[in-house]
């Protein structure tokens, strides 16, 4: 017993200095609320993001519901809305999210979270996203092209990237200026392929699928990629997320 106590004490002493150096660079709140079409991703994305946080010395706080917005949000450098259906946010939680942004917070929006339903129900949020998402074609394989090589969310990607996703079509009713990071080449897939009874048109040569801008002083990064659960195991996609999150939380990394 005495020997065991000594060994335990030695282990604690060895570990103590490491804890001192384990300070995190920043803290991120990830809200990953499941929905009808986006729920399988939750445990996979959480594991991948928490591993990413350990590797890169930042802290992730994960929540699967909006009640986390009731707490003090000041410690968070950024909030990531990860496939969260924003129509499920109550008026009170929407107000608290807006207050976070206006108090100096920053936001990263991923895939389904870019959609505000019903349309014009939350114009403030549509302006924050920078684009309004309409109906979109089925998941297909296409060619994603890098528009801004200087932005961290592109650093791990080739200039032309074969990727399979729901390539959202968007409009700009609020005349928001964004800086595109990734486009999708509509000649590489069928932008009109849609479910029976629906109609969708392509956007042409200018079809951004990831972008950034500033909104009410907040850094906002949006990627509309991320539909399939397997994507949250893909190293290139995770590199894309990391680059966007790094810039959102710190404002650094642009070449």
TrEMBL record:
Coiled coil: none annotated. Residues 1-22 form the signal peptide. Residues 27-248 form the ThuA-like domain. It comes from Asticcacaulis machinosus. This is ThuA domain-containing protein. InterPro entries: Class_I_gatase-like, ThuA-like. Keywords: Signal.
């Amino acid at each position: 017993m005495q020997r065991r106590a000594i060994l335990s004490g030695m282990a604690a002493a060895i570990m103590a200095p490491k804890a001192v150096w384990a300070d995190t660079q920043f803290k991120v709140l990830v809200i990953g609320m499941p929905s009808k079409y986006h729920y399988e991703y939750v445990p996979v994305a959480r594991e991948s993001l928490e591993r990413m946080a350990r590797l890169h010395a930042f802290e992730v706080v994960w929540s699967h519901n909006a009640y986390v917005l009731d707490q003090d949000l000041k410690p968070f450098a950024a909030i990531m809305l990860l496939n969260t259906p924003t129509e499920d946010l109550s008026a009170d939680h929407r107000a608290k999210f807006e207050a976070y942004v206006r108090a100096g917070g920053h936001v990263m929006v991923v895939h389904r979270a870019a959609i505000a339903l019903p349309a014009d129900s939350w114009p403030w949020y549509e302006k924050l996203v920078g684009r309004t998402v309409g109906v979109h074609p089925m998941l297909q394989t296409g060619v994603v092209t890098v528009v801004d090589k200087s932005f961290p969310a592109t650093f791990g990607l080739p200039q032309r990237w074969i990727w399979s996703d729901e390539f959202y079509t968007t409009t700009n009713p609020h005349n928001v200026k964004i800086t595109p990071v990734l486009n999708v080449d509509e000649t590489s897939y069928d932008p009109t392929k849609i479910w029976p009874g629906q109609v969708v048109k392509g956007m042409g040569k200018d079809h951004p699928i990831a972008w950034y801008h500033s909104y009410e002083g907040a850094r906002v990064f949006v990627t509309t990629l991320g539909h399939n659960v397997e994507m949250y195991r893909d190293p290139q996609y995770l590199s894309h997320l990391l680059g966007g999150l790094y810039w959102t939380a710190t404002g650094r990394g642009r070449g």
